[in-house]
């Protein structure tokens, strides 16, 4: 029986390999095989005709090198054949694909030898990423491949598939745009997809029997087969995913992938542990697996070959699939040096993540990519959970309220989000409940949001905390939350369906709940069309006005001034738009989270009301006011000073 405790092993003594040729590579004349397995005494490569059944028709022994690698070359054309490895490190480990496997058969049981050129859809060589001048120009829309199209109301043919994103002109039964057409209509700049790499818990042969978000990784460089029209041929999922990328890019929308290099679904049985036992995982002092992920293990990102693997994998996705950014699940598990190396290798891509862990890690916090260490990670952003909880109440509690649901004393935390978590002289940080201090050095390091796939949807959270609220009051709260997210500095992030009040029926952790819970109900777009239009106008407003997209913390500190008149439940501030090139030279922002209308004193001058509650006005239609203005309960106003 193998001992899965590793406190007696010094992993730093393992030889490392710097080459870029790990994996299995096809040419018409030969297949080249190389893996890193420094503890192996013997490595066997097995070939199969099928991705699931049958006996190996060929076995060959790999040859060892002093750098910990094992390699062989097979003469002949093996395109379309499947393979595994079996490693003996003193006792035989289980049969497994290699850790770099890029193409797999059904359920990832075996790797597939393939010709990458055949996975490119027509016109792939002309695919171009949308331009993103500054990271703060992004408006991110988070969704799940299956959620996006599985509902009958989607009007999409390829329900729950990669190809669902490629269909244009789809409509709900009410005749309203769905799918890709909806994204274009809404105006978001980037789609963030929950994990699309091969994960374990959905049977690709019976994909509708189970559901999962995908945070149960099996193979990091291969795609999930349940999202493909044919899970048996590994090239199909690659080709169809490239079509998804192509469709989004053709619509001017970038693609961000959610990546989960913090843990694997299996620990002992993982492809890592069946290749180099123990090396890829952090251990507690007693040698057992550490568990900062809350999923039974955590990857040792600080080890040289783990860091290399993560960087190699990200570069593969970025280059082969033209990916525009990555979101790091539980980024607080990653060590700082690895995140710095990722930023250096991928300087143009959006990079952001969760600046926390799910449990304790043996790696000291000052070495990990948590929020308070973000000053060491320029160009990498973290989710602003301080702002999220200030807006709607504590994320894990049903009944707690926030600013938009009428709770007092959340004003400073709302201001904290408005300035993208950078230092600002007019914020009282003792009232920023979680962090108590700024943690972003630049606005591009802050992702502002009110909800995401985790926890309750915004609608459900507000419904639980305001059980007596009318439908109209609920709409107002959802709108106010969107207004705060989309006009604040930093990078705004929207949970798919929030723009028409998405509900999961009160489910707070739907990671394996059925489609009936997780699907986007496109029928709600008609019912809550006023909310959709409000979000749509806010996004366009943000795009039109650089005052909401400042690129430097110094600008925020100099050109945003909070009003000195304190009123409970009200946040008000002025923006010197002219200083950042905005046509709106002097802007007044007013937000009322209280349940009463509020008479608000204006700075000296005459002002045009550009936004009042639901109404957005053109300059020649705007009401002109001075001295004071009535700010409606649960609403936003934007005023622009009338120039002489």
Automatic annotation (TrEMBL):
One of its GO terms (biological process) is carbohydrate metabolic process. Its EC number is 3.2.1.41. It is an enzyme of class 3 (hydrolase). It comes from the Bacteria. Keywords: Glycosidase, Hydrolase. SUPFAM superfamilies: (Trans)glycosidases (SSF51445), E set domains (SSF81296). Pfam families: Alpha-amylase, CBM_48, pulA_all-beta. Residues 142-542 form the Glycosyl hydrolase family 13 catalytic domain. The keyword Hydrolase applies. The keyword Glycoprotein does not apply. InterPro entries: GH, GH13_cat_dom, Glyco_hydro_13_N, Glyco_hydro_b, Ig-like_fold, Ig_E-set, pulA_all-beta, PulA_typeI. GO terms for molecular function: pullulanase activity. Belongs to the glycosyl hydrolase 13 family. This is Type I pullulanase. It comes from Mariniphaga anaerophila.
């Amino acid at each position: 029986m193998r001992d899965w405790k590793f406190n007696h092993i010094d992993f730093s003594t393992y030889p490392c390999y710097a080459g870029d040729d790990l994996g299995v590579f096809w040419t018409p004349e030969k297949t080249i095989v190389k893996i890193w397995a420094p503890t192996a005494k013997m490595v066997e490569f097995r070939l199969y005709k099928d991705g699931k059944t049958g006996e190996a028709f060929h076995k060959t022994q790999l040859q060892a090198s002093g750098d910990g690698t094992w390699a062989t070359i097979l003469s002949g054309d093996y395109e379309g054949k499947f393979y595994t490895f079996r490693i003996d490190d003193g006792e035989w480990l289980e049969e497994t694909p290699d850790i770099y496997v890029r193409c797999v058969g059904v359920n990832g049981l075996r790797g597939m030898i393939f010709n990458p050129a055949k996975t490119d859809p027509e016109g792939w060589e002309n695919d171009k990423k949308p331009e993103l001048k500054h990271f703060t120009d992004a408006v991110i829309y988070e969704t799940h491949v299956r959620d996006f199209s599985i509902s009958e109301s989607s009007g999409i043919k390829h329900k729950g598939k990669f190809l669902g994103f490629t269909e244009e002109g789809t409509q709900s039964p009410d005749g309203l745009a769905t799918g890709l057409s909806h994204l274009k209509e809404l105006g978001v700049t980037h789609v963030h997809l929950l994990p699309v790499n091969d994960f374990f818990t959905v049977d690709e042969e019976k994909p509708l029997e189970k559901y999962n978000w995908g945070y149960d990784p099996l193979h990091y460089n291969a795609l999930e087969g349940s999202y493909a029209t044919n899970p048996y041929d590994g090239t199909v999922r690659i080709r169809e995913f490239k079509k998804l990328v192509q469709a989004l890019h053709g619509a001017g929308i970038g693609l961000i992938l959610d990546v989960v290099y913090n843990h694997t679904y299996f620990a002992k049985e993982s492809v890592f542990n069946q290749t180099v036992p123990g090396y890829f995982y952090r251990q507690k002092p007693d040698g057992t697996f550490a568990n900062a992920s809350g999923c039974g293990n955590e990857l040792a990102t600080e080890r040289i070959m783990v860091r290399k693997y993560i960087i190699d994998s990200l570069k593969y996705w970025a280059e082969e699939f033209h990916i525009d950014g990555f979101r790091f699940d539980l980024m607080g598990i990653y060590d700082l040096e690895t995140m710095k190396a990722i930023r250096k290798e991928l300087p143009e891509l959006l990079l952001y993540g969760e600046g926390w862990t799910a449990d304790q890690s043996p790696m000291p916090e000052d070495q990990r990519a948590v929020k308070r260490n973000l000053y060491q990670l320029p160009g990498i952003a973290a989710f602003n959970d301080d702002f999220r909880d200030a807006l709607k109440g504590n994320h894990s509690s049903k009944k707690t309220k926030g600013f938009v649901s009428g709770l007092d004393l959340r004003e400073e935390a709302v201001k904290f989000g408005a300035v993208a978590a950078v230092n600002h002289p007019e914020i009282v940080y003792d009232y920023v409940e979680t962090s108590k201090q700024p943690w972003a050095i630049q606005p591009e390091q802050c992702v502002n949001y009110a909800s995401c796939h985790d926890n309750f949807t915004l609608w459900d959270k507000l419904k639980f905390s305001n059980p007596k609220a009318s439908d109209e009051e609920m709409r107002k709260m959802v709108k106010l939350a969107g207004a705060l997210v989309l006009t604040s500095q930093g990078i705004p992030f929207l949970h798919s369906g929030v723009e028409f009040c998405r509900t999961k029926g009160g489910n707070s952790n739907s990671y394996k709940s059925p489609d009936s819970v997780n699907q986007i109900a496109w029928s709600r777009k008609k019912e809550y069309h006023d909310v959709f239009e409000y979000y749509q106008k806010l996004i366009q407003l943000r795009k039109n006005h650089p005052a909401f997209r400042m690129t430097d913390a110094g600008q925020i500190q100099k050109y945003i001034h909070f009003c000195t008149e304190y009123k409970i439940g009200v946040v008000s501030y002025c923006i010197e738009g002219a200083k950042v090139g905005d046509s709106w030279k002097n802007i007044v922002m007013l937000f009322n989270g209280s349940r009463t209308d509020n008479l608000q004193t204006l700075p000296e001058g005459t002002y045009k009301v550009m936004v009042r509650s639901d109404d957005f006005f053109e300059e020649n239609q705007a009401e002109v006011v001075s001295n004071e203005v009535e700010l409606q309960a649960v609403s936003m106003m934007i005023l622009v000073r009338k120039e002489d």
